[in-house]
Amino acid sequence: MAALSWLHGVVRRRPGRLVATAAGVAVAVALLASIGAFLSATEAKMTQRAIARVAVDWQVEAQPGSDPARVLAATRHLPGVTRALPVGFAATTGLSGTAGGSGQTTGPGRVLGLPPGYARAFGGQLRTLSGRGDGVLLAQQTAANLHAQPGDTVAVGRAGLPPARVRVDGIVDLPEADSLFQRVGAPPGAQAQAPPDNVVLLPAATFRTVEAPLAAKRADLVRTQVHVRLRHDLPASPGAAFTRVSGQARQLESRLAGSGLVGDNLGATLDKARSDALYAELLFLFLGLPGAIVAALLTATLAAAGAQRRREDQALLRTRGATTRRLVELAALEAALAGGVGVALGLGIALLLGATVFGSASFGASTLSALLWAGGSALAGLLIAGAAITVPAWRQARSLTVAAAHRAPPRPGRAPRWQRWGLDVACLVGAALVYWQASANGYQLVLAPEGVPQVSVNWYALLAPILGWIGAGLLAYRLAELVLNRGRRPLTRTLHPVGGPLASTVVATMSRQRGLLARAVALVAVTVAFAASTAVFDATYRQQAGVDARLTNGADVTVNEPTTATTAPAFAQRLQRAGGVASVEPLQHRYAYIGPDLQDLYGVRPTTIAAAGKLQDAWFAGGSASGLMHRLQTQPSAVLVSEETVRDYQLSPGELLRLRLLDGATGRFTTVPFHYAGVAREFPTAPLDSFFVANAAYVARATHNPAVGTFLISTDGTSPAAVASRVRRVAGPTASVTDITTQRKIVGSNLTAVGMAGLTKVELVFALVLVAAATGLVLALGFAERRRTFAIASALGARARDLGAFVWAESLLVTVGGVVLGALIAVAITGMLITILTGVFDPPPDAPAIPWAYLGGLVALAAVAAAIAGGVTLRRLRRPAISVLRDA
């Protein structure tokens, strides 16, 4: 009963400190729980989207000399396999056909034999463009090469045998051509650079009729794969899902005993997603955990504002015989009440945020993860409350005497031990050394060796931001205390407009309170730094996601349709007439050999590509975007080379390169001289690794082939998705049309962008709350704890204006000092985070994006919070001094 009476008295007489502590706990719990919910949901979505992107989970290839029927039977009997169908693969010497009175012939290609129901079983493997979706089908590129349409007859060349003639039933696109035509069992570096251009798909019965004679004569030209669909009840974590799927694949290979190899498409996709998931966890660590720590520090600071009153309360209990243990128990009861209220409020806020921002009022993707995140967040909240109330109360109770409790707090004496030892400087030096060393060697924060079931984090690289945060916070405290202790004269001049004739007295009083004020300045600084660094990181991420989408798609709308010199202008004019089109830019896409390596080559019109592709200087080295395009125009044989190729072949500027390109007149590769003029790190529609950029007119003359296969469309402000829909109607069924809006969604579904917008909204809102609390609440509670001092000054004749000088001077120091130091910390921390988390960005940013509106609002909010705290304090000081002294 005595404990409950004490608690009732605290609630009735000291509600401010309980509410403040509970609010701090609520913010920390809500932040941890909501980000935990984001993390769990994000990983589950990553797994689901990785699975959805795979048309065929496994391609099990029967090895030479083995029985395909046995391979099929063993595959179907493996637990977890829901569908397995045999697919025949054969080589063709070429395809030929007649269209419009002229004959067309292609180079070598592939013939596939598909069993009945294949398209339904593996949705996404085929996309019908015209005609039927079954029967004899031509790939889109093949139909364009032959100028073939449904109903035409095509001859399929067979090595050493007369060609077989088939009638075309439809034209299809093969979205997963890269994986469909992979070399099963070959390492990634040994895979073909591009899928075959010439592909014909036959029903299984027709395939056996056409290719059986070839198989009897040349068995090496015909092979069988078993395409597999797995049961998708996989773990929510991409890493755990990858481990299970890759383990199943190895189990099947062991059962086949060398008669078959597994091309694990699903495992390869999950392999990429697992490193992305690890980056998501690191984002939680970098963006969420600092916010929770700031909330904990804020809670401790708010609780510490009542230290003097707590000492007085404990002294009264001492006079009634309370032991140290009893005092600590009462403090623990107070912490439990504040922590319990804060935990309940924080979890409720997190559920509300989950429902409104993440679309799910849950703490995790599964029951277990939800319980873990909710329980872990609640435990963290209780620990914060205990550390903020119980631990200081225990320390005070151990050394408490009644006389000491009613004395004024001692004057600041020696500096804290960490300050004397230079811990802040040591941390900052350590952070700089780790950052410099890791940056020099290239940051590899996530380590995911090819084929290894586990991914890991380079924890050494994380030391830089961790030490940076600690050192920056301690340095902010040191600087604030130094200004208050050693800079009293310049501080007096600075605060003279506020303090007037009392400026020196105000500064002297602040100097006596320098420990408390330095903590307030440091807290505001780290809070502002957290908010600013989060905002800049989010803005930079969104900026680079847009750049990535543009690089991948090439332009607002991109059309892939092979054309000739005579048909390209007319096709471009048709595209230009589609509504919403501002300009159409042709782009050649060829393949060129440098040594034994086959790489992509892009032929451009140097005078117009810079505007059409919105080229950026950061995408190039050795010159600006416009300068290098001018060089391609004035030196037609100039070529831009990717960084990887420059490094692999040790190229020097101006060096002669002899590239082999396919000659349109002879159908054979011919050597074309180029001169290395610069580096292209990125280029619209180009792959991530190796490619060339050259003058299109020079390439056309050298290869006797002016054909254009890609058209980059810039819109006039109309939605790219709407323009793409109109372009599809104009371009016809054989053209592939993509838009940047859709591509942005695809880019956003990879990596941490799954729900990234929701995460950053939550982060930025919490950051604003923390900044407001760090300035307004800390100042208000600090003033409230010193209202006795203000009341005595008022009783001695101090006017409201005189008291205002003290209030506004402290407010100005804490707010301005915290914002300035926080901005400096944010600059350093943001640069460090962008470098460390460079794997999140594709491509890495040339410079961070600055959200000036948000940062301006952040500063304004801090100023308003400080003004409100000062105004409320001055209004409360209007009460008669005797009333305040009686209640204090």
Q: Give Rg in angstroms.
A: 35 Å
**How many distinct beta strands?**
25
End-to-end distance, in Å? 26 Å
Tell me the structural class: alpha+beta
Largest sheet: 9 strands, mixed
Q: Give the low-pLDDT segments.
A: 402-408, 749-754
Helix fraction, binned, reads 55-70%
General shape: elongated
Mean pLDDT: 81
Strand content: 15-25%
Instruction: Give the helix tally.
Output: 31
Sequence of strands across the biggest β-sheet: 6-10-7-11-5-2-12-1-13
Plain-language structure description:
The chain has 888 residues and is an alpha+beta fold. Helices cover 58% and strands 17% of the residues. It has 31 helices and 25 strands. Strand 3 (95-99) and strand 4 form a beta hairpin. Helix 8 packs antiparallel against helix 9. The longest helix has 40 residues, at 265-304. The chain starts with a helix and ends with a helix.
Write the layout of secondary structure elements.
Blueprint lengths: L1 H12 L1 H38 L5 E5 L5 H9 L4 E12 L2 E5 L2 E4 L3 E6 L3 H4 L5 E5 L5 E3 H7 L6 E6 L2 E7 L2 E4 L3 H4 L18 E5 H14 L4 E9 L7 H19 L3 E5 H40 L2 H13 L4 H35 L8 H32 L3 H5 L10 H5 L1 H19 L4 E2 L8 E2 L1 H28 L1 H12 L3 H10 L1 H40 L3 E7 L3 H10 L4 E14 L2 E8 L4 H4 L7 E2 L3 H10 L3 E4 L1 H7 L6 E7 L6 E12 L10 E5 H8 L4 E8 L4 H12 L4 E4 H10 L6 H30 L1 H9 L4 H37 L15 H25 L4 H7 L1
